[in-house]
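Q: Could you fold this chain for me?
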Amino acid sequence: MKKNLVFLTGAGMSVESGFKTFRGNDGLWENYPVEDVATHEAWERNPTLVTNFYNDLRKKLYKAQPNDGHRIISSLENDFNVTVITQNVDNLHEKAGSTNVIHLHGELTKVCSSRDPYNPMFIEDLTEDNSQVTPGTTAGDGSLKRPFIVFFGESVPMMDEAVEATRRADIFVVIGTSLNVYPAAGLVYYAPKGTPIYLIDPDNVAQSSIGNIKHFRMGASEGMRQLSEELNRKYK
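A: Sure. Below is the predicted structure, expressed as structure tokens.
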């Protein structure tokens, strides 16, 4: 029987694909303060700025390609039941072929109702050749279309699904996240007692209270190459 392999990925997962982190050394995402483009207050204050910011970011996303780390995660579906829980709003895991991806913070390739963001009736997929939203465009309920993004300070509706996946994990892997952003950072504590936990990140990460952890101090692709070899030795 295949083991359940669960990944929690953060912004560091996509760095090699050309996407900046929210909390890098400059503290900015694509040169905009988070407070101007990723909060409900920012949306209420200037929906045109927010809409255009995500339009521009979407253009960058469609030019980006998965890195080796994304592709190795996808390939592990041959030998494991793989679930990817991601804090990233890009679709690079899906582009690489991963079939079970839980997006905690929303999806850049979608727009929704600003009145009722999680009503599936008003969630719309955007394609590469139709990726731009004209400011002022309305959703099916008459409210402005907004990015399908969980803004800072908003609840995380997919958290329960992520917790359940983590509780079923036989192996839990954290890639490219500081483990400082909650509630996602708390997922690691839902892994069953004794579950092997791997961390892939070139930097020191807040992990003092996490037991049974092995840290690969490297980027996503190199770390996934080493982890894949270890998983093959231990579990195939």
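A (continued): Residues 88 and 128 are 18 Å apart (CA to CA).
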